[in-house]
Specification:
By secondary structure, the chain is mostly helical. The protein has one domain. Helix content is 84%, strand content 0%.
Length: 158
C-alpha cells in the first residue's frame, strides 16, 4: 500500500511537470497516480470517480491537440505556425518559462512567415493564434493535473 502511495505522488509530480514540458503526457501520468491510489485498498476512492477522471483525462488530452489547430486556423494561419510554436517551445525550454513562451510565439510567427507568403501581419496573427492555442492547451493540462494531484494527496491523507 505504501509503495502505491509513493508511486501515486511521484506520478502526480511528473504529471504536473508534464503539463508544461512537451513530450511528457501530463494528465495521463496524473491519472495513473489516481489509479495507484485506487489500487491501494482502503483509500476510499470509487471506481466511478476513477472513470470520470479517465474521461476528463482523455478529453483534455484530445483538446490539447485540437485547440492549437483551431486557434491557428481561426486567425488565418497554416499548420506551419503550430509546428513552429512547438519547435520554438522546445528551443525555449533551456531559457526558463519565459523562454518557452517567447520561443513558442516566435516559432509560430517564423513558421507561418517562412511557409506562406501572406506578409508579416498575417504571420503575426497566425503566430498569436498558435500561441494562444498552445497556452490554452497547457492551461487545461495544468489545471487537470493539478486537481488530480490534489485528489491523490487528499485520498492518501484520509
Amino acid at each position: 500500500m505504501t509503495v502505491l502511495y509513493i508511486l501515486a505522488v511521484i506520478a502526480a509530480i511528473i504529471g504536473i511537470i508534464g503539463s508544461i514540458v512537451p513530450g511528457i503526457p501530463g494528465p495521463p501520468i496524473s491519472w495513473l497516480g489516481l489509479l495507484f491510489v485506487f489500487l491501494a485498498k482502503g483509500s476510499g476512492m470509487s471506481l466511478t470517480f476513477l472513470l470520470v477522471w479517465l474521461a476528463i483525462t482523455i478529453i483534455v488530452t484530445v483538446l490539447d491537440y485540437v485547440v492549437p489547430m483551431w486557434t491557428t486556423r481561426w486567425t488565418g494561419g497554416h499548420k506551419a505556425a503550430s509546428t513552429g510554436a512547438l519547435i520554438g517551445l522546445f528551443a525555449g525550454i533551456f531559457f526558463t518559462p519565459i523562454g518557452m513562451i517567447t520561443g513558442a510565439l516566435l516559432g509560430a510567427f517564423l513558421g507561418e512567415l517562412m511557409v506562406t507568403n501572406k506578409g508579416v501581419w498575417a504571420a503575426f496573427k497566425a503566430g498569436i493564434g498558435a500561441f494562444l492555442g498552445f497556452m490554452c492547451g497547457t492551461g487545461l493540462k495544468l489545471i487537470s493535473s493539478g486537481v488530480m494531484a490534489y485528489y491523490i494527496v487528499s485520498f492518501i491523507v484520509r
